[in-house]
Give the backbone structure.
Amino acid sequence: MKTEFEHLQAAHCENGVTTNLLRSAGADKLTEPLAFGIGAGLFYVQLPFLVINNGPAIAFRTMPGLIFKRTCNALDIPVVRKKFSSRETGKNYLDDCLAKGQPVGCQVGVYYLTYFPKEYRFHFNAHNMIVFGKEEDRYLISDPVMETVTSLTDYELDRVRFAKGAFAPRGQLYYPLEKKIVTDEQMGKAIVKGIKRNINHMIKIPGNIAGVKGIAGTGRKIKKWRDKLGQQKAGLYLAQLVRMQEEIGTGGGGFRYIYAAFLQEAHAFHPKDELLEISGIFTEAGDKWRNAAVQAAGIYKGRIGSQADFDVMGDYLIEISAIEKKAFQALSKIKWNS
Amino acid sequence: MKKEEIPQDDGALNKLTKEVVYAVDKNGKYSSELSTGWDVKTKALDLAWEDIQQRIEEARQKVLRNEASPVLYFIELRLMDIGILAAYTGFWKWTIRQHIKPAAFKKLSEKKLQQYAEAFNISVEELKTMNVHED
């Protein structure tokens, strides 16, 4: 059996699943940047005292699952979301959905995801894919980060749906409950809601951990890494920063380019020229993030590595923090009609 | 990022798929484009793996020196930590810390060894000898 479903490749798995599922549920104008912006996906945080994979715990986007949840809420599309304590029930539920013609979003771990290259298979449990059919023993899979659709056996899908550890998926699946008509007016309102939420997250959270102040905070820390951690470990830390920023799913520049694209697309729903100007500021921020990554690579490749080089690296982030602050302040000054 | 600046370097992901990036055209308009990879991040990932290989080797040496049990070696080999292993085996973290000591490991029942072997996706024999043959 095969459900009615169109695979679209996306930069990020959750954006992709959100876009693909909601388009088939009636939000036919939804794109990856719009889903990301409506879901207020842009973020920055460095969690203090926490070490992940022996490096700093840094995120450039919001918590897994929130983009889908917020976008569905904002567009008033009801969602079914289920977790399972037993593998058997989890499998039967999925099979029932497919039999009814319902494509289903699934949260999975990537460690046992057989089609992923070995280099990418860490114990990361917040990957998302859509299961859209079953042919004999194989489930048909639309993984948004891939150019084409793929498939997994019963056993393989079961293993990734019930992976263990942090963010253990527990077989979680989700799908829109019913088809709805999403009007342009609703899209417009959802966009404003998403932008306002993102302004809050980036410039209104107190403390120096999250948002634009968090970026500058990391910048100041980087300047101390060489002395504190030693050259080799400092290099590893910078490499981890670059991976979080540039790895598959970010669309480049730590999601800043996707956000810039979102503001351009938002212009179609709210013809305000400020949106295009501010989009340009996010492009500038994304470019600066990429330049910083090149600087970091110089250090972890061992080409450079003096304290002055770490200072330049830290200053990049402090400068980016100021640019993004300017962008979000400009966004907060827009007068929306609705 | 401008379209013509999108890096098209080689990377591990390229074996599977090209990835989507967002870039602007001459008029500053965004669209999604494909990239094969970027050497800046390829090197970052390589470095992470070199670090992992080093940790695996250190763990192996510790086991050979009888300072740790093979559980430590397989935690590193399978990119786990004690928390993840606890989730897969159902053992308490504290228990696993005990089993990382060689003396406690030697006293483990066949059933418990089997639980570890399953979590590490190996046989009990492989667990004891650290001799794993795979691709």
Residues 184-332 of chain A form one domain.
